[in-house]
Protein backbone atom coordinates (compact mmCIF):
# COMPACT_ATOMS: atom_id res chain seq x y z
CA UNK A 1 0.00 0.00 0.00
CA UNK A 2 1.21 3.53 -0.75
CA UNK A 3 0.99 6.50 1.62
CA UNK A 4 -1.59 8.27 -0.55
CA UNK A 5 -4.02 5.37 -0.07
CA UNK A 6 -3.49 5.53 3.69
CA UNK A 7 -4.17 9.29 3.62
CA UNK A 8 -7.49 8.67 1.88
CA UNK A 9 -8.57 6.38 4.73
CA UNK A 10 -7.21 8.79 7.34
CA UNK A 11 -8.85 11.86 5.78
CA UNK A 12 -12.25 10.15 5.70
CA UNK A 13 -12.05 9.17 9.35
CA UNK A 14 -10.58 12.47 10.54
CA UNK A 15 -13.16 14.50 8.60
CA UNK A 16 -15.93 12.40 10.12
CA UNK A 17 -14.56 13.18 13.59
CA UNK A 18 -14.04 16.87 12.85
CA UNK A 19 -17.61 17.20 11.55
CA UNK A 20 -19.02 15.40 14.58
CA UNK A 21 -20.30 12.33 12.75
CA UNK A 22 -17.62 10.15 14.40
CA UNK A 23 -17.99 10.53 18.19
CA UNK A 24 -14.81 11.13 20.16
CA UNK A 25 -15.32 7.89 22.08
CA UNK A 26 -14.96 5.96 18.80
CA UNK A 27 -11.71 7.64 17.74
CA UNK A 28 -9.50 5.17 19.62
CA UNK A 29 -10.97 2.21 17.73
CA UNK A 30 -10.59 4.06 14.44
CA UNK A 31 -6.98 4.95 15.24
CA UNK A 32 -6.25 1.28 16.01
CA UNK A 33 -7.80 0.27 12.68
CA UNK A 34 -5.76 2.85 10.83
CA UNK A 35 -2.58 1.78 12.67
CA UNK A 36 -3.13 -1.65 11.14
CA UNK A 37 -3.55 -0.03 7.73
CA UNK A 38 -0.36 1.98 8.33
CA UNK A 39 1.48 -1.23 9.13
CA UNK A 40 0.78 -2.40 5.58
CA UNK A 41 2.53 0.59 4.01
CA UNK A 42 5.40 -0.51 1.82
CA UNK A 43 7.90 2.06 3.11
CA UNK A 44 9.10 2.08 6.73
CA UNK A 45 9.39 5.88 6.47
CA UNK A 46 5.75 6.11 5.40
CA UNK A 47 4.76 3.79 8.25
CA UNK A 48 6.43 6.16 10.72
CA UNK A 49 4.79 9.23 9.12
CA UNK A 50 1.38 7.56 9.34
CA UNK A 51 1.92 6.52 12.95
CA UNK A 52 2.92 10.09 13.92
CA UNK A 53 -0.17 11.46 12.20
CA UNK A 54 -2.41 9.00 14.03
CA UNK A 55 -0.72 9.72 17.35
CA UNK A 56 -1.40 13.45 16.92
CA UNK A 57 -5.03 12.75 16.08
CA UNK A 58 -5.40 10.50 19.12
CA UNK A 59 -3.94 13.25 21.32
CA UNK A 60 -6.33 15.83 19.89
CA UNK A 61 -9.32 13.55 20.34
CA UNK A 62 -8.85 12.93 24.05
CA UNK A 63 -8.82 15.30 26.99
CA UNK A 64 -9.58 18.99 26.71
CA UNK A 65 -9.21 19.08 22.94
CA UNK A 66 -11.82 16.34 22.60
CA UNK A 67 -14.11 18.24 24.92
CA UNK A 68 -13.80 21.35 22.80
CA UNK A 69 -14.49 19.42 19.60
CA UNK A 70 -17.51 17.81 21.24
CA UNK A 71 -18.86 21.18 22.37
CA UNK A 72 -18.27 22.68 18.93
CA UNK A 73 -19.92 19.71 17.20
CA UNK A 74 -22.98 20.04 19.43
CA UNK A 75 -23.11 23.78 18.67
CA UNK A 76 -22.96 22.97 14.97
CA UNK A 77 -25.78 20.47 15.31
CA UNK A 78 -28.01 22.94 17.14
CA UNK A 79 -27.19 25.79 14.78
CA UNK A 80 -27.87 23.79 11.63
CA UNK A 81 -31.35 22.65 12.66
CA UNK A 82 -33.85 22.99 9.82
CA UNK A 83 -36.58 24.12 12.24
CA UNK A 84 -38.07 27.62 12.02
CA UNK A 85 -38.32 30.37 9.47
CA UNK A 86 -35.44 31.33 7.20
CA UNK A 87 -34.76 34.38 9.39
CA UNK A 88 -34.70 32.23 12.54
CA UNK A 89 -32.44 29.67 10.89
CA UNK A 90 -30.08 32.41 9.70
CA UNK A 91 -29.90 33.97 13.16
CA UNK A 92 -29.31 30.54 14.72
CA UNK A 93 -26.51 29.80 12.22
CA UNK A 94 -24.80 33.13 12.99
CA UNK A 95 -25.10 32.45 16.72
CA UNK A 96 -23.63 28.98 16.17
CA UNK A 97 -20.68 30.46 14.30
CA UNK A 98 -20.05 32.82 17.21
CA UNK A 99 -20.24 29.94 19.69
CA UNK A 100 -17.83 27.81 17.65
CA UNK A 101 -15.42 30.74 17.29
CA UNK A 102 -15.49 31.24 21.07
CA UNK A 103 -14.74 27.56 21.63
CA UNK A 104 -11.93 27.69 19.04
CA UNK A 105 -10.36 30.62 20.89
CA UNK A 106 -9.79 28.25 23.83
CA UNK A 107 -7.65 25.91 21.69
CA UNK A 108 -4.15 25.00 22.80
CA UNK A 109 -2.62 25.53 19.36
CA UNK A 110 -3.35 26.89 15.90
CA UNK A 111 -3.98 23.44 14.43
CA UNK A 112 -6.74 22.67 16.89
CA UNK A 113 -8.20 26.15 16.45
CA UNK A 114 -8.26 25.71 12.66
CA UNK A 115 -9.91 22.30 12.95
CA UNK A 116 -12.64 23.78 15.15
CA UNK A 117 -13.19 26.74 12.86
CA UNK A 118 -13.69 24.48 9.84
CA UNK A 119 -17.05 23.56 11.39
CA UNK A 120 -18.22 27.09 10.61
CA UNK A 121 -18.06 26.31 6.89
CA UNK A 122 -21.28 24.34 7.07
CA UNK A 123 -23.03 27.19 8.84
CA UNK A 124 -21.73 29.73 6.34
CA UNK A 125 -23.22 27.61 3.53
CA UNK A 126 -26.55 27.49 5.35
CA UNK A 127 -26.53 31.26 5.77
CA UNK A 128 -25.65 31.76 2.11
CA UNK A 129 -28.40 29.39 0.97
CA UNK A 130 -30.96 31.25 3.08
CA UNK A 131 -29.80 34.77 2.24
CA UNK A 132 -32.08 35.44 -0.76
CA UNK A 133 -35.13 34.15 1.10
CA UNK A 134 -34.25 36.06 4.29
CA UNK A 135 -33.79 39.44 2.58
What best-fitting shape do the alpha-carbon axes yield?
elongated
Structural class: mainly alpha
Question: How many structural domains are formed by the residues?
Answer: 2
Tally the helices: what do you get?
7
Roughly how many Å is the radius of gyration?
17 Å
Order of helices and strands: HHHHHHH
Mean pLDDT value: 89
Regions with little confidence, pLDDT below 50 for 5+ residues:
none
Note down, in words, how this protein is organized:
With 135 residues, this protein is an all-alpha fold. The protein folds into 2 domains: 3-61, no CATH class; 66-134. It has helices at 3-19, 27-39, 44-61, 63-79, 86-104, 110-117, 120-134. α4 packs antiparallel against α5. It is elongated, with a radius of gyration of 17 Å. It starts with a helix and ends with a helix. The model has no long low-confidence stretch (mean pLDDT 89).
Q: Which structural traits does this protein have?
A:
135 residues, mainly alpha, 79% helix
Secondary structure elements and their pairing?
Elements: H1 3-19, H2 27-39, H3 44-61, H4 63-79, H5 86-104, H6 110-117, H7 120-134
Helix pairs in contact: 1-2, 1-3, 2-3, 4-5, 5-6, 5-7
Brief write-up:
The chain is an all-alpha fold.
Amino acid sequence: MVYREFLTHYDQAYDAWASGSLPADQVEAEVRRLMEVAGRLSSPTDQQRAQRLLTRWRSAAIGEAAGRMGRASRALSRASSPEGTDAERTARAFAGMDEIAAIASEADDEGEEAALLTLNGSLARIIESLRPAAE
